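Predicting holo structure, NDP bound.
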Amino acid sequence: NRQLILAERPRGEPTKDTLKLIETPIPTAGAGQMLLRTTLLSLDPYMRGRMSDAPSYAAPVEVGGVMVGGTVAQVVTSDIDGFAVGDYVLSLNGWQDYAVSDGTGVTNLGKSPDHPSWALGILGMPGFTAWAGLTRIGAPQPGETIVVAAATGPVGATVGQIGKLLGCRVVGVAGGSDKCDHAVTNLGFDACIDHKADDFAEQLAAATPDGIDVYFENVGGKVLDAVIPLLNANARIPVCGLVSQYNATEMPDGPDRMNWLMGQILSKKVKVQGFIIFDDFGHLYPEFAREMSVWIEAGKIKYREEIIDGLENAPKAFVGLLKGENFGKRVIRVAQD
Ligand code: NDP
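Done. Tokens:
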């Protein structure tokens, strides 16, 4: 049983010493348990937070513990009603080949799901995050302008496409021209701006001539800086993530603009609301799953993923994800079906 354990807490970007691959015996499931074999492991930005012991909404992984993560797995042995040998499940095995589960928090996907990896993306946590954050906090009205960064990732791409379905102008922000082309040509965004461009702030202003009504916050940093002056009165900011800051080791450079920001929020009556998807909106999951399935079936939502072979490649792929090396949802294929 190969396991990737947290060998030390990283300072800044995780290094080759952060995670260590070890080999342990395959565990045995007891009464009321099942043995799961991981086939797919989801890589998600929140995992950086779990490597750190800074105060957070969730407990960190212990040093020496297996990295946490959402997985698609196959049932190898089972002593639980409703889970039969050979079934695929959505589970939280973490970064390892095998895990024992008592079925808590595990969803049965059946013997031959059409797109097992989608349970980790468009039909799972990231898709749900986009849907709930946009519709419940962003609450966009037809004709309004939405801006979302990480626009080709699983959250941002879904936010933008739902925004179009709701009749909004959608402006994406992404790293590089390939990603921006994809957002406009394939995902139907009205515009997409490369945040690496020198005149990024000017380009964003030009692409939002009517201002910004909803800024779906995925990244923070200079994207946030460019957005704030463009916000309209009564704008909404669902605060979903701040991926540009996840490897930060100290407060950002520059003058303290905290009071200026609060002044903008006050004078423009901006609603800023952070959310943690399952804490705040878990009860809405069935509604999301129904609505998203209909959209996908009708070809209204597109989904791009990037599957990388081999558990041993997960650490490097994860570091790259935080820097935008991914193009679409990053998933590790841990074992062939
Ligand atoms: P992505 O697959 O989109 O990966 C992160 C992306 O962030 C990168 O690909 C990169 O895209 C972009 N990025 C990285 N650094 C910067 C930077 N300095 N400036 C601008 N963009 C940057 O991730 P997800 O779709 O899985 O997640 C998106 C956000 O949603 C994350 O912040 C994540 O933490 C958050 N999240 C929050 C949840 C919640 O419950 N609140 C639940 C799930 C996700 P590019 O190359 O285009 O810049």
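Residues 125-138 form the longest helix (14 residues).
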